[in-house]
UniProtKB/TrEMBL annotation:
<protein>
    <recommendedName>
        <fullName>LRP chaperone MESD</fullName>
    </recommendedName>
</protein>
<comment type="similarity">
    <text>Belongs to the MESD family.</text>
</comment>
<dbReference type="GO" id="GO:0016055">
    <property type="term" value="P:Wnt signaling pathway"/>
</dbReference>
<feature type="signal peptide">
    <location>
        <begin position="1"/>
        <end position="21"/>
    </location>
</feature>
<dbReference type="Pfam" id="PF10185">
    <property type="entry name" value="Mesd"/>
</dbReference>
<dbReference type="GO" id="GO:0006457">
    <property type="term" value="P:protein folding"/>
</dbReference>
<keyword id="KW-0879">Wnt signaling pathway</keyword>
<dbReference type="GO" id="GO:0005783">
    <property type="term" value="C:endoplasmic reticulum"/>
</dbReference>
<keyword id="KW-0143">Chaperone</keyword>
<dbReference type="InterPro" id="IPR019330">
    <property type="entry name" value="MESD"/>
</dbReference>
<keyword id="KW-0732">Signal</keyword>
<keyword id="KW-0256">Endoplasmic reticulum</keyword>
Length: 233
């Protein structure tokens, strides 16, 4: 219920911006974390868990969580299992300093990859020029979304259920340990700080993407040259 209220608020703010123009509402002024906390404090609607057993509604697609089959060392797997059948929001950060147009193009490409490779639909909500929300109707699909993002050099990180995951665009990304989180690195004493960058690091990548015209195969011409015939005089 809280996620639904939050998404409704984001949609309202987005529609307000379209109505009044960019000068009336700046993407950067939207703080989704504070907005979510506000809804949490003011939410007077009880969840099924807070109601007596005889007043509880249907499980609405929720699955019974079997802790014995979970890898507790992988927080993403735990989240996927605990949020199975439920809507979930994933905050995704883009590497560098993309423009809003670049952000839209890049994240649309990720959304298309998720759909084409895994047949999973996601909704995108723009927060800042370098941050978006991917909303999944089924929390277990976070595994597939993570697989897509962990192949993208322009993806800096993503955050789900207050857990911060690194992606290839992050300076501390380790392809040998893709499930590492900021918390796990801190616990192991390997976190180098939010502002650390390796020598030679380029914060901004060239945001050029192939267009449909470039990707389309070139058509072969059916024209055939005819051999010239010499006539004798």
């Amino acid at each position: 219920m809280r996620d639904e209220w939050f998404l409704a608020a984001v949609c309202f703010l987005a529609s307000a911006e379209l109505a009044f123009g960019d000068d009336r509402l700046d993407h950067k002024e939207i703080n989704p974390r504070k907005l979510e906390e506000a809804f949490s404090e003011d939410d007077e609607i009880e969840s099924d868990e807070d109601l007596p057993i005889h007043e509880r509604g249907p499980l609405r697609g929720r699955r019974q969580l079997d802790l014995s089959k979970l890898d507790m060392s992988d927080p993403l797997s735990v989240t996927a299992a605990s949020k199975a059948g439920q809507s979930i929001m994933v905050f995704v950060d883009i590497r560098g300093d993309p423009t809003e147009g670049e952000r839209d193009q890049i994240t649309l490409f990720w959304e298309a990859n998720l759909l084409n490779a895994h047949s999973i639909e996601a909704k995108r909500f723009m927060i800042k020029s370098d941050r978006v929300i991917f909303q999944l109707d089924h929390g277990e699909n976070i595994i597939e979304l993570a697989a897509v993002l962990r192949r993208e050099d322009r993806c800096f990180s993503f955050e789900v259920e207050s857990v911060y995951f690194l992606c290839p665009g992050h300076p501390q990304w380790d392809p040998k340990n893709p499930s590492a989180t900021r918390k796990s690195l801190k616990d192991e004493g390997k976190w180098k700080g939010n502002d650390w960058r390796p020598e030679g690091w380029k914060e901004r990548l060239e945001y050029t993407m192939d267009t449909e015209d470039k990707l389309a195969p070139k058509k072969k011409s059916n024209f055939k040259w005819k051999k010239s015939v010499k006539t004798e005089l």
